[in-house]
Specification:
The complex is a heterodimer of chains A (418) and B (219).
Chain A: H1 3-13, H2 15-63, H3 65-75, E1 79-83, H4 88-94, H5 103-111, E2 119-130, E3 135-142, E4 147-148, E5 165-168, H6 170-176, E6 183-186, E7 189-196, E8 207-211, H7 212-218, E9 227-231, H8 241-248, E10 254-258, H9 260-324, H10 326-334, H11 339-373, H12 381-407, H13 411-417
Parallel strand pairs in A: 3-8, 5-7
Antiparallel strand pairs in A: 1-9, 1-10, 2-3, 2-4, 2-9, 5-8, 6-7
Chain B: E1 2-12, E2 17-28, E3 33-37, H1 44-51, E4 59-64, E5 67-68, H2 74-84, E6 85-88, H3 100-105, H4 117-126, H5 142-155, E7 160-164, H6 172-187, E8 191-196, H7 199-203, E9 207-212, E10 215-218
Parallel strand pairs in B: 3-8, 3-9, 6-7, 7-8
Antiparallel strand pairs in B: 1-2, 1-4, 4-5, 9-10
Helix pairs in contact in B: 4-5, 5-6
Classes of the chains: A alpha+beta (418), B alpha/beta (219).
Chain lengths: 418, 219
């Protein structure tokens, strides 16, 4: 008979304690695999939350496209239509108009029901030296919107300015300390401040927005319209060709200029949304990271307790087995087995139970992770092998001392006693 | 030939020392069935364990066919024990989860050889336990258990059989079977050393040795 045969028969004979040992070892590996699955589930949940948040942010950005229109309105105009023979150099360098639309042309624009432009606002821009301000300012005369697409659903985004009233740019307000209701004199005429415009960081800050007729009179250009502002145009940024093509059918020889502020406005709107979303995602990521740290600490503690508990249980179980087998060990020594063979015989059992428990526990952990947490990708082969090896090592170490005691049993004492 | 040369053995505890054997000396030739007699506690079992290399004497030597058993390393002595000696105990010491046949074959566990089922069957037939071949010890009578233990002791064809009160728990019929087996073994050239405090059992032996004043005296 070989020791292996004896070993297998002993396992079958003491199957209850063998099953208990396997369960204890399985608890270790199942706990480790389960803890990992739990953490993986937590990570997956975090990723899901972030992904949902990103998706929500994208939806919100799409929804806020219209809001960007309002942002852009607050910051400046979108499209400027100029007469074809307007000298761009003088316009940009001196804020001076060299060509004007006729009233007929403007009326044609207003009644053309343009598809690409929404709010049309005839205007006159004219730079003057204003003594009270002690510098140059831009007179901007506006008449009110002459065309609104779908007027049933949209209201004018730029109200008209009544005669004798003026909206002052922010830089003018700051220098002259003018408040709403204050009186000011321009070219010998008195105007009342109706509104202080918010700071825009551009030429609008030194502009005086007034009724078109007042501006025409003050600039000495009665009846003239230097350009038409088109607010919230329906075109992709930078692609003005559709507008030009549509305008050519209505008014010949029109320059179309895009105000950069529109892009800036939209960008700011998107940045604000993006920033808030990013902050929210960061908050969630940080709080999930803290939670994960706590969960990981708890899992580590739980696994440690299970490992210690299982090790103690296996030690006690092996001690009991050695005590029960004292007579058997003494006989095996009398039959010629050395103490090393006895030690090995005891440890084989620990290795086998550790191996069986490790494999069983891994299966339980993986299946539990799959069915309860819906996690299936955490149990890689190297990880499983590591867990099984660790379980075997724990079972072996836990049984080492009792096995050593078995090896040191003095057969003479046992055989003499019995 | 077994030479027991001036064996002295003292059991020591924290509080006292108990001298059990003092320069016990004997020489037992092959083909001898020897009985070592004496009252309980006189040191018979101690001497048997020393002869089996399981208990180290304080002084003295045990020579089996010219080889000093205690000059060998522990592992080597264990192997020689498996090769040369067979043990029969009063309490049988059968392994509870092995069948009769497996208990007999367990004698070869230290020799790492293949199982000799023919030898096992031969011994079971000889000791009349063949019909109990697949039974575990718990299902056997006391006599059958001792016959199984005897078959185990004979399985490796040892040169020496060491028996500690082998008939102590047996009825006369089974005791006779065991003692006859010992006689047969000695007649075949083996050496039997049996310790007993039963005079009837000792009478079956070729020679009797008595432990008197902690030493061996030929009767």
């Amino acid at each position: 008979m070989r020791a292996g045969h004896l070993f297998i028969r002993e396992l079958r004979f003491r199957r209850v304690s063998v099953v208990l040992a396997i369960v204890a070892a399985a608890a270790v590996s199942a706990c480790v695999v389960g803890a990992r699955s739990f953490l993986a589930a937590h990570d997956a949940e975090t990723e899901k939350l972030i992904a949902a948040l990103e998706e929500r942010a994208a939806d919100r950005m799409a929804q806020l496209r219209d809001d960007a229109r309002v942002f852009s309105k607050n910051l400046g105009f979108n499209i400027l239509l100029l007469p074809g023979d307007q000298d761009a150099g003088r316009l940009y360098a001196e804020n001076r108009s060299t060509a004007f639309f006729t009233r007929k042309q403007v009326q044609a624009l207003g009644s053309a029901e343009l598809a690409t432009l929404n709010h049309l606002l005839p205007m006159l821009r004219h730079q003057i030296h204003w003594d009270q301000y002690d510098g140059n300012v831009i007179l901007v005369g506006i008449e009110g919107e002459i065309y609104i697409k779908s007027p049933n659903f949209q209201k004018p985004i730029e109200e008209r300015v009544d005669a004798g009233m003026v909206h002052i740019g922010n830089a003018i307000h700051k220098r002259l300390k003018l408040q709403i209701g204050a009186q000011l004199e321009i070219e010998g005429e008195t105007f009342t401040v109706k509104r202080v415009l918010p700071q825009k960081g551009n030429i609008d800050d030194i502009s005086l927005l007034m009724n078109l007729g007042d501006a025409q009179r003050l600039s000495g250009q009665p009846g003239k319209i230097s350009g038409v502002l088109a607010l919230s145009c329906n075109c992709a940024a930078g692609d003005l060709d559709p507008i030009r093509q549509e305008l050519e059918r209505v008014v010949q020889d029109v320059q179309v200029v895009e105000f950069s502020v529109r892009a800036q406005a939209r960008q700011r709107a998107r940045s604000a949304i993006g920033k808030r979303t990013k902050e929210e995602m960061q908050d969630i990521t940080e709080s999930r990271a803290i939670l994960r740290s706590h969960v990981a600490q708890f899992a580590t503690l739980l696994v440690s307790l299970v490992v210690v508990g299982a090790a103690i249980f296996l030690t006690v179980l092996t001690f009991a087995s050695v005590r029960e087998r004292r007579s058997e060990v003494a006989l095996l020594r009398a039959l010629g087995l050395g103490s090393l063979s006895i030690f090995a015989l005891m440890l084989y059992k620990a290795v086998l139970t550790g191996l069986a428990g490790g494999i069983f526990g891994c299966l339980v952990g993986v299946l539990a992770g799959r069915w309860i947490l819906g996690i299936s990708a955490t149990a890689t082969t190297p990880f499983m092998l590591s867990v099984i090896s660790a379980t075997v090592a724990i079972a072996t170490l836990a049984s080492a001392l009792p096995a050593l005691m078995a090896a040191r049993i003095d057969p003479a004492v046992i055989l003499n006693q019995e | 030939m077994i030479d027991i040369q001036k064996i002295t053995k003292t059991y020591r505890s924290e509080t006292k020392e108990l001298l059990v054997l003092k320069e016990a000396t004997a020489s037992i030739k092959p083909g001898t069935f020897a009985a070592i007699c004496g009252p309980s506690g006189c040191g018979k079992s101690t001497l048997l364990l020393v002869l089996g290399g399981l208990l180290h004497p304080d002084t003295g030597r045990v020579m089996i066919d010219g080889e000093d058993l205690f000059a060998l390393s522990s592992e080597r002595r264990a192997l020689r024990r498996a090769q040369l000696l067979g043990f029969v105990f009063q309490r049988f010491h059968l392994i509870p989860y092995l069948t009769v046949e497996e208990n007999i074959e367990a004698a070869a566990i230290a020799l790492r050889g293949s199982t000799d089922q023919v030898r096992a069957k031969e011994l079971m037939d000889q000791l009349n336990i063949t019909d109990r071949r697949t039974h575990v010890p718990g299902k056997l009578s006391v006599g059958e258990q001792q016959r199984t233990a005897l078959a185990r002791a004979l399985y490796n064809r040892p040169r020496v059989l060491l028996a500690d009160e082998p008939t102590g728990n047996l009825d006369p019929e089974n005791a006779e079977i065991v003692l006859n087996a010992f006689s047969d073994f000695a007649n075949a050239g083996g050496t039997v050393i049996m310790v007993t405090h039963h005079p009837e059992a000792a009478e079956q032996a070729d020679t009797q040795w008595w432990i008197k004043n902690k030493t061996l005296v030929k009767g």
